[in-house]
Amino acid sequence: MLRFLVLYTALALGANVAQAADLDALKQGEMASLVTYSKPLPVPPFTFTDDKGGKHSLEDYKGKVVLVNFWATWCPPCREEMPDLNALEKKLGGDKFAVVTIATGGSNSPAKVDKFFDSEKIDALPRYYDPASFAARAMGVLGLPVSVLIDENGHEIGRMIGGAVWNSPDAIHLFKTLIEE
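Structure for Thioredoxin, as requested:
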């Protein structure tokens, strides 16, 4: 039994390192600025809320590749990339992939987020909140927007600082490759 456990652990760790190396090869065009790591990083536990005050965490998405986007209604690059994030979720969201948007900071009331989502026809993304920026601080977010790529095991495998064209062919190829592995 111990041999099996050691072998399984070694294979799992090897797969994670291979995944990180493969991810580097996928950083083309619009995804060239994606920061990747030689080994997946642990993600600290944190929670965020929905508009009814319900608590959520990344545990809700365990088993999926997740793109966590920290944004704010007052942030022009955040607002600019939101339609692409919406299109990405519509195209690939499901059992293996999800885009999770978290409005961080106290100025992002549900009313402001609703108004922005409605005006831009953002209809596929969750409306999550981090009013005291606890989740953003836990993830080391210093400016906005920041998008963190989480693998199906709950580890950080990439990070985009600044806006991106998330619905580009380069992005779609990267995410399809990750979820099909």
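The longest helix spans residues 2-25.
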